[in-house]
Amino acid sequence: MPKRKIFIFDCSKAENCCDKSQYDEAGTREKLSMLMHLLLCKPCRKYTSKNTKLTHLIKKSKLKTCSEEEKKAWKNSIEKDMAKGES
Q1: CA pair distance 86, 1, nearest whole angstrom
Q2: What is the mean pLDDT of residues 55-83?
Q3: I need a labelling partner for 41 at 20 to 30 A (CA). Which of 1, 34, 57, 67 fits?
Q4: How many other C-beta atoms are found inside a 10 Å radius of the C-beta of residue 55?
């Protein structure tokens, strides 16, 4: 994204604020400044739109992380398979 300065935020700050807004970490003043920036900056509107879609897809997918035991079991399985292939 180009580094332009529109209104109060430059594009890099708008990106950061967009990310924070997705996780409810941005304050009211930040959100208002970002909205004003988005009115004037098409690349940032596009970034925000894509970021919002990505956030919704991730929440919808219900991803979960693996436990340490699962990771160790997979690692051992892969190592056994690799040892068989080397024989």
Answers
A1: 47
A2: 90
A3: 57
A4: 14
